[in-house]
Amino acid sequence: MEARTPVFEEIDPGGDCDCPGCVHWRRVLPHSTPGRHHAAHRALILAAAASTTLVVGHTAPALAAPHTLDRPAVPADDEPNTPQGGKAPLHGPGGKPAQPAGPVKTPPTTRAEIIKRAKKWVTAKVPYSMSKYWSDGYRQDCSGFVSMAWSLTGNEWTGSLGQYGVRISKEELQPGDILLFHNPADPQKGSHVVIFGGWTDYTHTNYLAYESAPPHARRQSTPYAYWNHSDRYVAYRYKGLTSGTSTGKKPVTEQQTGTKSETGTKSETGTKTEAGQQGVAEPDTAKPASRKSPAPYPGRAHFGPGANNKHVTRLGRLLVERGAGHHYTTGTGPRWSDADRRATQAFQLAQGWRGQDADGLPGPGTWKLLVTGKGKDIPAAATAAPPPEQPASHGVPGYPGRALFRPGADNQYVTQLGKQLVKKGFGKHYKTGPGPRWGQSDRRAVEAFQRTQGWRGGAADGYPGPETWRRLFA
Predict the structure, then answer these.
(1) How much is the pTM?
(2) DSSP H helical ranges for 18-131
(3) Residue 444 pLDDT > 60
């Protein structure tokens, strides 16, 4: 019996058919000729003619293996790139919408409370999601994060957050304000919002940003205004912000905020202001204390010239969040510097303290206000204030004291001393030029200068006293 060979014919997809099969095959077969339907694609046409049996046996029909079409994946370009969800009410524990919030409301809050709420999500590392809601009812994306920190009555998005704030300039930015970029042409492409946490240096080129972004809520140093689309971000200040101004009563002093004063004596009063006490007011009582026990004061020995530890780093970060970022030229760090002293003093002065209570060294009272988020922030006007008056230790104008010139010291006066030594002809001891960190080059240069004055022994020890300073800068 003679068997004929089967004939296969390729059938192109129909050019005017919108079914998924034809759409797919028109995409992968660019030279297809329109006119025939995909249902016949790779159809088997078996042309069998009658024939004479040549060999006795079974007839073997020609079969084509079935051809299944996998559903093509949707191209990545067709997927929406949505960085945030839309406007929505708060959600309850079960993830279901709660009662709608109603008209636009701006609940009162303070800068410290805004940063405190933002820190709570950062500490918990709340996962980023455009569709999920955290236990407090806020959506876990950038705009939900700001809605939470501002304590809004619903979940806003970048297209609606602006109505809760007033536009401000870069120079007016303070912790708790936001930087918002909303792309009206295509809100799903690039729109984002972050919370401003304070400048990290005096050049105002970097700041601490609190934000919700993949993979979770975070806080990090960020270039102004953001990593991309920088020129399209707009600064806003929350309309419901309360300033926490003074009540007109006598401010709490450094000695009155802790169990011991800066000099080690017992405090005369506590921080409460109930009737019958001595008129001592606790600054900014609207700012609640942290639910967790605040970190205890590590002790005065951890701060000051020569100190190099984690507590100095934490102090600097806390001060930056309270508006002292302009004092730091290169950001905060573990080594104590004059920037830490100036920033601490600015915070102390903002509390209304004077004299030894505002000496630039953090005592237990200063530390308590910083770690609990209480007290007054450093006012914006302080960023434009002139530098503090020149010191005059031992009656010598400009001399800051021997404590600022010793191993581990890092401050502006070391640089000033080094430059003056070079100017006077004692620069051969410097290999890389004078700098803020005290080193052997400074000591040898000072010693050389002292010896030219005819001094010997302890009078030429390489450490500048008031007389060395007076003669050097005469």
Answers:
(1) 0.43
(2) 20-28, 111-124
(3) yes
